[in-house]
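Memo to structure team: turn this sequence into structure tokens by end of day. - J.P.
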Amino acid sequence: MGFNCGIVGLPNVGKSTLFNALTNTAAAQAANYPFCTIEPNVGRVAVPDPRLERLAAISKSQKIIPTQLEFVDIAGLVRGASKGEGLGNQFLANIREVDAIVHVLRCFEDSDITHVEGSVDPVRDAETVETELMLADLDSVDKRVTAAQKKAKTGDKEAKELLSVLEPVLQALQAGLPARAAKIDASLKPLLARQQLLSAKPVLYACNVEEASAATGNVFSRRVEEMAAGQGAATVVISAAIEAEVAQLNSEDDKREFLEALGLSETGLTRVIRTGYELLHLVTFFTVGPKEARAWTTHKGAKAPEAAGVIHTDFERGFIRAETIAFEDFVSLGGETACKEAGKMRLEGKEYVVQDGDIFHFLFNV
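Reply from structure team:
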């Protein structure tokens, strides 16, 4: 599994249309009225990685298995969601379960598609959703800080450590900033992540533009980019309408020709995945053999046993060492045997930090 992204936004901004296109399914009902997505729809897509096909060709692998990316299409949010308005409680509960947020913003004019706020203003829409997330967090964190302070007075070490995370978060929220903007020591980031705060999750703004602006963006998307730059957030310009059309094409040649005619070199899905990987600090490693060539995902900074654990918990528990080949060496020399002969296969131990593109064979004993 690669990672898990919740697709969020106000009603009628193109969330479900984008979800349908990205997952190439009709699982989510796309309709011109609020809350047409009532239960979160989940779709998995293969992460495109041309390196995997090259490895499979060299090793004559019978099967190619890419890593997977999961999208969750979450019901539209409206003002007051933090107080339960609309489908607020459900929205907030669903969003707690995802690793990152793909925030779809309407960046196109269309008199046939109503806007819940009555006009198109993606920056305002982004602030509406962000405010609801922060208000929900503020209420939750305020209560947790009060409880932790009482425990800390008794000398409780865990409570003191928790306060070192929650107090800066509370200050940020009270100042109108999301939890992810709180100044917290890097060593405490895992503890922050375990709090499942809504506004602590990394955000990718997906600017849903009209077809004519898919390659260049428009005035609306540029305003979003300025806003995101101030937050240190990522943005992607995407046309849900185009993605829906591409999803209907069967052959890769047809898809490529269609995109080229619009001045595009890749699908929005590819851009979302690439930006999402950067957002979540992920890397890809591979296992390759005659039976299958397979891609796996772990986080940057992961050590070899953690990567082994992605494949199977026994691999991590009984980890001995990892036979490791860099992707460039594998390709340039023509496979595992040639890499061994050239001394390009390394034996890495428990402290080895995984590099993007590493090809592993894990040795373990349980």
